[in-house]
Amino acid sequence: MAKTRIELTVNGQAVEGLVEPRTLLIHFLREQLGLTGPHIGCDTSHCGACTVDLDGKSVKSCTLFAVQAQGSQVLTIEGLAAADGTLHVLQEGFRQMHGLQCGFCTPGMITRAYRLLQENPRPSEQEIRFGISGNLCRCTGYQNIVKAVQYAADRLAGIDVKEAAE
Predict the structure, then answer these.
(1) pLDDT tens for residues 12-21?
(2) What structural domains and CATH numbers belong to the chain?
(3) What is the pTM of this model?
């Protein structure tokens, strides 16, 4: 099968690759770029483990062909932390508020929460629950995930937040 050259920006870096037209974005990210943060969960768009930020929108990368991302800006969980390894406030929130258990959904959940906070910097609990409703977690019951997003929203707003109980 003929391959197509694509060029895009991933986590702030210009990248290019040769892909078959049927190659999904999730496979391009994981297999060609080595970005294994976005996970392959259901391959049906139901779980959200593969969520990335594409041109300012949350997308499930298992539903998009890599060629459709031509010229786009893609942000994965790997692109959220600072270059020196300092965690993004959402990553810190998930750690502090115990927003993860097995961790499988975490990259997609955090990436979706990132976009949610870009769209609504001070979401209510109900808005957070609705905002992450396309991402499934089979371990946590969501309560601590919601707390983690609230933690990040507070930190981003400059509010001093109480760390998780020890």
Answers:
(1) 999 999 999 9
(2) 4-79 (3.10.20.30), 89-156 (1.10.150.120)
(3) 0.93
